[in-house]
């Protein structure tokens, strides 16, 4: 999901050859770098977006899988939830360019967006299955968390088994195009078959909002999101697991901060406050 410095937008001859072998018309077109990515390199080329993945930049919480992203785009084609895929290869993919700006306002539209995604068919989804339930989430996070800078482990009640849903895996503001009326998700490199509360926690995360939007959500924005998301059972489970879910996001921020990544120390502080608030 993130890197120490923004990725170089240089493309090696070998990388260019792989992409242009599949899409030869791109050779004669202008490649315009697109800003915003923290890990992967992205260009606009005519009506297409070309994305080169850097798998080594994955983190425990956020995989970086080009093949999974291309599969997700194909499965969601025609739903309005994701861009239309064009081609894919070894650590790269191409999809149709989507007009618009990264999300900044209109949390109600994101509630509708995630509810639509979480209602998609899940039969035979070929994606990873992240841990669900308090015991499994904690056991996984403890394998990589840097606990010295984290609040005490929150104690949350056991949650009932859940119906698994199609997850984006990283629905932060920088991965959403659109605002009040209509929004669409990009950067599908970590899709999953899992508990919808994972996506909800990441969107509502004050640390992630700070990193990608520049400010945390207001109480009114959170209420608007919840009202349009509408799945009462999922929201109740999120409320139950929120201290642990935000502790895990804080653990991600602590790990990135310890590696020298910009912005994560402040994000960690905000996420630790969210852990405390969720327990009061």
TrEMBL record:
What the entry lists under Gene3D superfamilies is as follows: 3.90.1200.10
The UniProt record lists the Aminoglycoside phosphotransferase domain at: 31-239
Q: Which InterPro entries match?
A: Aminoglycoside_PTrfase, Kinase-like_dom_sf
Q: SUPFAM superfamilies annotated for this entry? A: Protein kinase-like (PK-like)
State the superkingdom.
Bacteria
Q: Which UniProt keywords apply?
A: Transferase
Give a GO molecular function annotation for the protein.
transferase activity
This chain's protein is named: Aminoglycoside phosphotransferase family protein
What organism does this protein naturally occur in? Gemmobacter lutimaris
Q: What is the lineage of its organism?
A: Bacteria, Pseudomonadati, Pseudomonadota, Alphaproteobacteria, Rhodobacterales
């Amino acid at each position: 999901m993130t890197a120490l410095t923004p990725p170089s937008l240089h493309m090696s001859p070998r990388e260019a050859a792989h992409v242009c072998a599949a899409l030869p018309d791109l050779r004669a077109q202008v490649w315009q770098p697109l800003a915003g990515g923290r890990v992967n390199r992205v260009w606009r080329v005519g009506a297409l977006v070309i994305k080169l993945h850097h798998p080594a930049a994955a983190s425990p919480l956020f995989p970086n899988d080009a093949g999974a992203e291309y599969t997700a785009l194909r499965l969601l084609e025609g739903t309005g939830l994701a861009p239309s895929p064009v081609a894919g290869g070894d650590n790269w993919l191409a999809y149709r360019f989507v007009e618009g700006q990264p999300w900044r306002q209109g949390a109600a539209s994101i509630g509708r967006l995630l509810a639509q995604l979480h209602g998609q068919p899940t039969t035979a989804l070929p994606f990873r299955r992240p841990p669900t339930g308090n015991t499994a989430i904690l056991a996984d996070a403890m394998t990589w968390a840097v606990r010295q800078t984290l609040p005490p482990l929150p104690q949350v009640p056991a949650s009932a088994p859940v119906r698994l849903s199609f997850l984006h895996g990283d629905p932060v503001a920088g991965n959403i195009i659109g605002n009040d009326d209509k929004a669409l998700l990009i950067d599908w490199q970590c899709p999953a078959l899992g508990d919808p509360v994972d996506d909800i926690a990441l969107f509502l995360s004050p640390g992630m909002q700070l990193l990608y939007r520049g400010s945390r959500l207001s109480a009114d924005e959170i209420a608007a999101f919840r009202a349009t998301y509408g799945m009462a059972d999922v929201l109740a489970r999120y409320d139950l697991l929120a201290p642990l879910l935000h502790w895990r996001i804080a653990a991600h921020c602590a790990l990135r901060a310890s590696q020298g990544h910009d912005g994560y120390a402040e994000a960690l502080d905000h996420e630790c406050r969210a852990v405390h608030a969720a327990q009061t």
